[in-house]
Input
Amino acid sequence: MPKSLFEKVWDAHAVRTLANGQTQLLIGTHLIHEVTSPQAFGMMRDLGLKVAMPHRTFATVDHIVPTDQLVEPYSDPLAQAMMDELRKNCRDFGITFFDRATGKQGIVHIVGPEQGITQPGTTIACGDSHTSTHGAFGAIAFGIGTTQIRDVLATQTMALGRLKVRRINVTGKLRPGVYAKDVILHIIRVLGVNGGTGFAYEYGGEVFDRMTMEERMTVCNMSIEGGARAGYVNPDETTFAYLKGRPYSPKGAAWEAAVAQWKAVASDAGCHYDDVVNIAAADIAPTVTWGINPGQGIAINETIPDPAKATAVDEKASIEEALAYMKLKPGAPIKGTKIDVAFVGSCTNGRLSDFQEVAKFVQGKKVAKGVKAIAVPGSQIVALQCEKLGLDKILSEAGFEWRAAGCSMCLAMNPDKLVGDQLCASSSNRNFKGRQGSPTGRTILMSPLMVAAAAVTGTVADAREVFAVNNN
Amino acid sequence: MSLAKITSLTGRGVFVPGNDIDTDRIIPARFMKCVTFDGLGEFLFHDVRKDPATGQTTDHPLNDARFKGATILLSGANFGCGSSREHAPQAIQKYGFKAVVAEGFAEIFFGNCTTLGIPCAVASREDIARIAAAIGQNPQTEIVVDVAKQEIRFGGQTVKAAVRDSARDALVNGRWDAIGELLEGAAAVKSTAAKLPYLAA
Output
């Protein structure tokens, strides 16, 4: 019987069926960070439990780290307390910690792949919903809560019901100026923010075959924004080339054996999918959000939805609520909307290629007057790569602030916050009310290049026009 | 570890209308700078309960004195979407809620709630509106969320309220916190791990 990658990985990691019908699923790799783990370690201590597989558990610090202060103690004592707690927990329980001093610190979903910890055919869990990112490698990766972090720490397993699999084919060729971010924003717009409930998304088709690993990560990252518990791309030569030679990648004969296993784990031709969705690449435009969830997106040339034209009561109410919060006019073009802040970074778009693309186009240009623009590399290694290429200088000369690695303004648990009702053109993943640190702050999600276009024009703009983009 | 068998919960309710109420709305990220979950309850729905400009309390249902002490939270579709942060269900629980009734729940949120022993029951929009109308008229209305029977009883009416099989089983049989059962599987875990090259190495 042909099987999907999801079925193969699930079956290989299923330990047994629990009394309530859920599966006790073995989690091969557990990634932890400072925000959702301290309470789990507290529970471990209360119950007198040890970490089952400390060598399969990896920690980093990302959410709370300041990006403009490298020396501890941090000016925010609460942030310092979380840092200290993680350090202590890693020491007490024998866990590898990619602390800042190691030069390998960064956003957990950037660190795992860049260290070669994220591998095809594995199961991964992390107390963060964007764990779906790791699916780009053909891993099944779950975002989990703190009590489940305790479960994985103590047993290297968790209780979970089997998911259905939806295959999403994106066929044809993306138009110039259309990026991986646009692909996922488009998918969420089409399928809805809860369209993926109960599913793992398998992304495939020519567009994904051609994508780099960094682009695949951008797409898988936002699976959860479409309600899917996990998202993945089948591993191929692109995956293997990315992983070869990374610190935790298999070496020598073990590498050849691993590649053979990774090839075998990909979905078989003719396997069963619970649902199939086909999307034509040509239909995808540079996409921006106008509302307060990631499904509320439109093509850059479209107008802001009008609640008067809504076909359902629900839709009308949600448009009204979103527009009231976003202070946007129904029926008006989104293009030309004035912005206050531009943010390039996050686990969605904080990798080398994101900064390369921005630098390529902002070189010689200036951030518009009155716009605060910040560029935050996703990891210390990304920062170093960018600096070696001089991208930091190009960005700084254009008027971006070049910061140290962390989650930063994606969720603003560090000092990088919007103020008042500032409007931010953001390469991050969520545009929820108050997401970027101010209870009235406003977010428009878009690709890094679209953020760059917004930064230099001071408005939501079409990067294809601003930068005369004619190829990818 | 012996856990309570959660077959049914009785209490007063409060209706927080809206679809897609996300985890940042439930508890803004800036209140998650903590190493314990204690005290999260007071920040539940913080930014919609306090006017960000004036600091004054808003007309949010949780600010309405008539609904003080409610233990059953009612809302719309896709409740709890967004983050996997357990801070959201923890804040709901620490505030005093024992059950959530909505048109639908985001996946991770649902799992997190179940693990904390908070039943998430799915009811139709019309039925939720009916319950909301009853408590609007009389906030003292006693609501019974019957997990075992998958129904909600209030003011002489009974409506359907689905609780997914695995969660219902876990709640009514007192095994909603899986840790005990997971620990018992240690030997089986070892043999499964031994068959996986990346874990055997």
About this structure: Residues 125-137 of chain B form the longest helix (13 residues).
